[in-house]
Amino acid sequence: MASLSPGEEDMESASEGEGGWSEVRKKTSRKKIDMSSDSLSESDSRNELKRVKKKNENEDWKVIVEFGEQTAAKLHPVALTKAIHKEIGSIKQARFLSKGRMLIELMNAKQQEKLLKMKTLNEVRIKCHVPGANRKILGVISGVPIEIGIEELKKEIKGGKVSVVKRLPTRYQGKIVDSLSVLLQFEETIQQKIMIGCMSFPVREFIPKPLRCFKCQRFWHVADKCKATKPRCPTCAGEHEYGSCAAGAKVKCCNCGGEHSAAYQGCEVQKKAKEVQRFKVQNKVSYATNKKEVKTENNSGSSR
After folding, report:
1. For the chain, the helix, strand and coil percentages under 3-state DSSP, each to the nearest 5
2. In which residue ranges of the chain is pLDDT below 50?
3. Which CATH code, of 3.40.50.150, 3.30.70.330, 3.40.30.10, 3.40.50.1100, is assigned to 60-129?
4. Is the full-model pTM beyond 0.70?
């Protein structure tokens, strides 16, 4: 089973209901993702799938260097390049990520090993790790009675080193309530099953919801990185903020054009995005380097 690195925000993302997560079951063959539509939103998922496949094939000899946000903003690109070449030699390429981090693609394992041991670069203190090394290992168990509290679960769970236990919420009669599913964060490898008392519970991989921008409602980026010049309403697809629909406006999805909101779990575009997300988790695609935006966003975002 795979591990992933969604962070705490993804653990919280399930607050929209049990539809906020999905599970990986063992299969003899992987279902082929149908991406025949020419819609922009489906094109996003098609391009995202191609991107993560390509990235997954070229994951070797990469290192994440952490400078700190304030420090990174002051770094001189030319001086930094010279320092990298001086310390470890020629590299494939490097680029800045968010939160004061840089991704460096190296030529070989020797360079990677040397960089991982470095504490400073160009007289600046750094922390280095391989992409994915800090990924949280998350699984889900279901059918856990509501009457069993979190603290009791922490004490009674056996069969693996579990550091975090969190009851997943669900929506019932318009309200958010606790569900029978529990999210587990493992310290080492994810287990096939865990024991609560004498009862056995199979463990399934946790798959966070695919990123959806709350400005333009499209997938694979967040509002802070959105290139759209105008917002899109998730209810009627109009060019306005949520909750400002005109009187009598019909419900319309701005991703597929269907008669439902952009948040509808049954939306065909959202289903395809979930399949891509599933592929990313099953193939251990690193979240640490998953910051590059889908190319079509750059071209179409400014035109909306």
Report:
1. 30, 25, 45
2. 1-20, 22-38, 286-304
3. 3.30.70.330
4. no
